[in-house]
Amino acid sequence: MDTPKQLLDHVLVPVANEADARETAAAVKEIEPAHVTALYIVEKADGSIDPVPQQYLKEDGENALRVFDEVFPGADHELTYADNLVERIYSVAADIDATAIAYRSRGGSRFVRLISGDHALKLIKDPPIPVISLPQAKPE
Fold first, then answer.
1. Which pTM does this prediction carry?
2. Which CATH number fits domain 11-134: 3.30.990.10, 3.40.50.620, 3.30.360.10, 3.40.140.10?
3. For residues 28 and 107, which has the higher predicted lDDT (pLDDT)?
């Protein structure tokens, strides 16, 4: 008989940059998941010309994943490309058979969230698997 999956068996953790990777990895440590996959998505322009060359964005992603590993050693890494971040997060979660997605809100004003598409809101709206909202970093 198969053992039922638990919420923290395999957690997918999207990161946005090096600072976010460091803070998110520290927050993930606190929930003590059994297995973690850190995810960096290189955002592609949807048919228009990318303002930043993809190679630079890929290097940023590799650096963010390296920083995540410094704080949370042993995590798997995924670096992928997409024009729809939330759909790609769900897709990767399904591909790796994740049991949950853990994210840390990156804040910003309502206006910034409005013009950036507020990915956090889209991520928690009708998700295919549980989504865990991690706490913000505590000021030192």
1. 0.84
2. 3.40.50.620
3. 28
